[in-house]
Each structure stands twice: as structure tokens, then as C-alpha cells.
Amino acid sequence: MCFERRPGTPDDVRRFRKSYFAEPGARIAHPGLINDLKQIDPTTKFGVVTTTSEHVAEVLLNGPATEYQRLTLAKREADYASHKREPLGKSYSRGHVLPARMQQPEFVFGMGGTFCESAKELLYPSTRDGLLNSEENQALYKRSHGSVAPGEQKNRGYRWEAASIDPAKHRFGVKPVGIGAEGGEVAVILNPEMDESIAAPDVASRQLEDRRSLYDHLGKPRHLGSAATDTLPSNHVFGVTTQDSDSAWQCIQGEYSADEQQPDADLGRAVNHGWRNATCDKRAFGVPTIRSDIPAPARRSVADGQNYGDDPNAQTLLYPEEFASSGVSNAEFAQPREQQYVRALFEKIGHPLPDDDFELVWKQATQSVRYTPSGQASIADFRDALNDFLEAQERGPAALQQWQSRVETMKS
């Protein structure tokens, strides 16, 4: 039997089927974009091409490290107007010329106040002559601000004499009917005993008399009993005398004596009965961080992270010694050295000395007891003595002769 081959899917329909992307490595795209993608170079990149990113060292660098970098940065910053107007470390200069007294270091603005003022002085300021305004100043405040004293009638400057009016006695308005010349009708209504036309009762109630005696009268203090206030002087003031108040600085600092500042006697100990867990033995629980109780192995493993007491401390890690990167500690410079060893070492670093000068420098180094006992010298001792020799040599022949005389007089 012979079967005809099945016809393929047309190209305009095939891109809509899943079998179109069945080949290995085929790029999957939307059917509507397949024909457009055929016209685009497959190596084309979309977007904006960016430069390489900054490295970590450039990001963490917070300032110029060398003098050349500082000069380069200063040259770049000199173009900015803000740098010219307000340079680093100086305030913005607006060209004002201050008087000579304001340019003194001890000059300050404002008014000098007292060290501490009490609340009473702030609420009720003292009426000293220097704090009160003069009559001329008060008149100016009345005219400019309309400021008058409490209870004072505002004077608008009317000329009453032109109208033949006495402001102390004249009353404006129409007089109502039924009010006498003396007035006081409201007072008569509230206090009938003031009306002479009404006969006063022979007997008054005790409640009314007590009310009249204890009621607050206008403009008079309250009667609180039979206190002997008549015998008190006119300038008598009731209450407790105000004590010297402490300032805010004294309140924060306190006034504790040296004994009061000492720690409590029971500090670090339990004071409640039944909570004490004292022991006579000086024992410590747990495993110590530094295993000084066991000997360190002769050859430590790379995976051994135990500290046997010979590891550097945190201070050494945070602040390493000057020549730690070369494997040389500061203690090496303080070790006693032989004379020939020290001379050869300093000759290699560029300080060759004649025999006479070297003997004098070595003599001064052996007399120093800063690093080694007397009679011995270390690299640090010889360095200090050499610095004295070089300094005297730079100052001139007189200073050099003085240094030689001083060293020769030293005891060997």
C-alpha cells in the first residue's frame, strides 16, 4: 500500500501553532511579532548603553589620599561659585565691616543676665527704678500702642473747658424718671436697710448677720476671724520666706559629697534573705574563652580555632604595630643588641658614622635606661642617641661641641 504524504501547515497559519517552536533552540515570540523579528538583526540590543559601574574602592574612597589628588580636587572645586563665596572652613562673607569692638574675641551679642532667676522674680518682677518706664516713655506708649495701666481711664485729649464740662462730675445721657439726685437705686434694692424711709426691724436673723460678716465685700478682704492684724506693720507679708533656688545646672549636676558618690556597700550582692548563693570556693562555671588551662599543641591544625592564650588581642587587631606587616614587633627594637650588629644595621639604612662619633653615640645609648638596663643598648636607645647627634650637627659646630662634652662626661 502506498500512502500519500500529509500536506504541511501553511506558513501564514503555522506560526500560530505550538509546533512552530518545537525545534530545539527556537526563540519563542508572540505570533504577531514573528514576521517583524525576521527583519531585525538578532544581535541588536535594546535600551541605552551604559558605562561600566564604579568599583567598590572608588565608592568607599571618601577623599583624596595624596597631595596630588588634593591639588587636583581643589582645582576642580575652584570653578564653582559656592566654593569662591564660601570656602571650606570659613563662613559666608557678605562684605559687612563690623566695628572694632565687635571684632574682639570676648564680644558677645545680647544682654547679660543673672546666673539664675527665681520663678517669683519672673512672675512678680521687682519695681526698681531702672526697670520702670519714665513718664515720658509711658506717654509715648499710650500714643503709639494705646497702652494704658490697669484700671486707668483712656484719655483721648478732649478739651472739656471749651464746652464748660467737668469730666469728674458731668454725666451724659437723659436722666431716668424715679432716680434721685444721689442715685444708688440698685444698691437700695439689694440692701433695703439703706432706705431710711423703711423702718429697720428690731431683731435680725442670725443667718443674715453671719452672711453680712463673712460675705466678701467689694474692695475689702474677707473677714476670716479675730486675727490681730491691726498690730502688724504696713509692710508685713504673709507666707514662708523664699529660699535660694538652685539653678538648672545645679539640679542636673547635684551636690553629692565624696562619700555619697561612693558605690553602695552591698553592690553586686543579694540583699534579700534566701536568695544568697555564696560559696567559699573561687570557682567559675563554663568553659573559658582563652584555654590557658591546657597546653597549646606543638603544631596547631589549620582547623583549630581555639585560643590558647598566644593569639593577639582586639587592640592588636584594631591598631596593629608599625612593622607588623613585616613580622617585626615593637619589642624587637627594645631588645639588647651587640655593638657591631647595631652599627651594621644603621649603616645599611644610610647612617654611616666615623669611629669616634660612633663611640660617643654608643656611649650615650648605653647610659639610657629607657628600654634596657645601664651598660646595654637596643636599637631604640641607639636611635634616640643618634637623633641627638644629628640634631646637634645640624645646629652648628658650637652645639656639636657641647654635645660631645656632655657625652664625654658621662660615666662609662
Helicity level: 25-40%
Strand content: under 5%
Return Rg in Å. Answer: 52 Å
Q: How many E strands?
A: 0
Structural class: mainly alpha
Note the gap between the termini: 127 Å
Shape: extended
Runs with pLDDT <50, length 5+?
A: none
Major sheet description: none
Question: What's the short story on this structure?
Answer:
With 412 residues, this protein is mainly α.
Topology:
Blueprint: H1 11-14, H2 34-37, H3 56-60, H4 67-77, H5 81-85, H6 119-123, H7 135-144, H8 185-190, H9 206-214, H10 248-253, H11 314-318, H12 339-348, H13 355-367, H14 379-395, H15 397-408
Task: Note down, in words, how this protein is organized.
The chain has 412 residues and is mostly helical. The protein has a domain at 337-408. It has helices spanning 11-14, 34-37, 56-60, 67-77, 81-85, 119-123, 135-144, 185-190, 206-214, 248-253, 314-318, 339-348, 355-367, 379-395, 397-408.
Structure keywords:
412 residues, mainly alpha, 15 helices, 30% helix
